[in-house]
Amino acid sequence: MQQTRNAMTAALLVGAAFSCSLFFVACDRAEQAAPAPRLPAVAPPPDQAATPAPSPAPAPSPEPDAEQRRGVVPQPRETPRPAPADANATRAKYDFAELYGTCEPGEGGSGRTYMGREISEVMGHFGVGWLERPEREREERTDLLVNALKLKPTDAVADIGAGSGYFTMRMAPMVPEGVVYATDIQKEMLDIIVERALEEEAWNVMPVLGEIDHCGLEPGSVDVVLFVDAYHEFSHPREMMESILDALKPGGRVILVEYRLEDPTVPIKERHKMSEAQAKLEMAAVGDATRGQLEFVENISVLPQQHLMVFRRR
């Protein structure tokens, strides 16, 4: 256990050393056809870690604004982690034009459609204040949400679209012998999470820089995947869910929390809501009989405004 804590501490601190190199390597990756070898999900202890190769000097960049001066990059690896081979094969079998369509954008919508639903616009890192608003627990009963997860002390949990780390930091004490992977595609959000993890000494929090079509997690690495008001924003929901299916251990759970579209009194833009029927439809399309699938388990009715839907890998 002490060795694991040391590894996680090192992972958070090493993030600062690689702040510049990670950002530019992440940009370079999109231009490379062949992925680099995958790295382990948890960084090795300091006395076992290999000395990283020096990164090339980045090109001069404009003076950052206040939002960009948040501190360290929260990714303790020299390079972003590529998708596993089987996930790449999954990506190849989908035709973007067949999966996704276009429409006239509705309020809060992106103009792109998937399985009859308009994908919503994305909340950027400037929305952190809303995520961390003091009244959120009272309005959404986030305390009931966290308790309903029924986490075990040894669980490996992934907070997908972790944002400011609101739920990451609440789950970390619940898995003292496990790990919480805080995954987001926005570097600015992960910067905030690393700062919070260091301040609160949450050594079992591991930041992961994902991609728009891949969660960035190792195959078979997590017991529970949590989405809170994030899934409806994904520009590539099928590809993202296929990567999450791969990341789940057998019997692993997906917890999908979304504002109830069926309830017109919920004060959220329509494109930022989902119905239970739509969620079931999209989750049922993930995977196949060979790779595994997601089956609906229950919709836990404890939250005042949101569905809390549970799916299990089988």
Describe this structure in words.
- This protein has 314 residues and is α/β, with parallel strands linked by helices.
- It has one domain: Rossmann fold.
- It is 30% helix and 22% strand.
- The protein has eleven helices and twelve strands.
- It has helices at residues 2-17, 19-29, 85-93, 96-99, 128-131, 136-140, 142-148, 166-171, 187-199, 237-247, 276-284, and strands spanning 100-102, 109-114, 117-120, 156-160, 179-184, 205-209, 222-228, 248-260, 273-274, 287-288, 292-299, 306-313.
- The strands form two sheets. Strands 4, 5, 6, 7, 8, 9, 10, 11 and 12 form a nine-stranded mixed beta sheet that branches. The protein has a three-stranded antiparallel beta sheet with strand order 1-2-3.
- Helix 8 links the parallel strand 4 (156-160) and strand 5 (179-184).
- Helix 3 packs antiparallel against helix 10 (237-247).
- Mean pLDDT is 78; it is low at 12-53 and 57-87.
Order of helices and strands: HHHHEEEHHHEHEHEEHEEHEEE
Low-pLDDT stretches are: 12-53, 57-87
CATH superfamily: Vaccinia Virus protein VP39
Query: What number of structural domains do the residues give?
Result: 1
Helix content: 25-40%
Q: Examine the secondary-structure arrangement and name the CATH architecture.
A: 3-Layer(aba) Sandwich
Provide the gyration radius in Å. 19 Å
Determine the strand fraction and express it as a percent band: 15-25%
Shape call: globular
Structural class: alpha/beta
